[in-house]
Amino acid sequence: MKKFNSKIKAYNEMAMVINEIVPAIIDRLSEGFKIKADGELFKKDNDDIKKLLEPTRERGITSWLDCRHSYIAVRFKRPYYFDGGNDWLDEFYYVARMDGSIMTFEPEETINIDEALENRNAVSIMRDQISELESQISICKTRYKLD
After folding, report:
1. N or C: which end of the chain has fewer CB within 10 A?
2. pTM for the structure as a whole
3. CA-CA distance, 22 to 31, in Å (whole number)?
């Protein structure tokens, strides 16, 4: 349970940062940008984006620009801790295409922990029901030589 709560809390913190940073990056890229032959942004554009990403470090989030293939994406990575270990949240958002077109951004919604727990329990119950049904199907197939 602590891992689940820690993950939801970390996700909500990261969502708030993403909702601030990604639109700012999209706004900056909307002003124009140039791509070098190796697929990276030219220095001025890259420096502007790095400056926009700086505040994520203060919040325990690693972030960087990822220029690959035909898209430019922003990637965010954040650890979360629980008794006995840690894990990572890893999110990325396409912000532009290499041809200069800009992507749209839908803000991330934060997750209500009580609703998440309720849904987690409901999913567990449904999985048990599915497992029981699969067992009954298997018995019928074997007994009546179906398939």
Report:
1. C
2. 0.80
3. 15
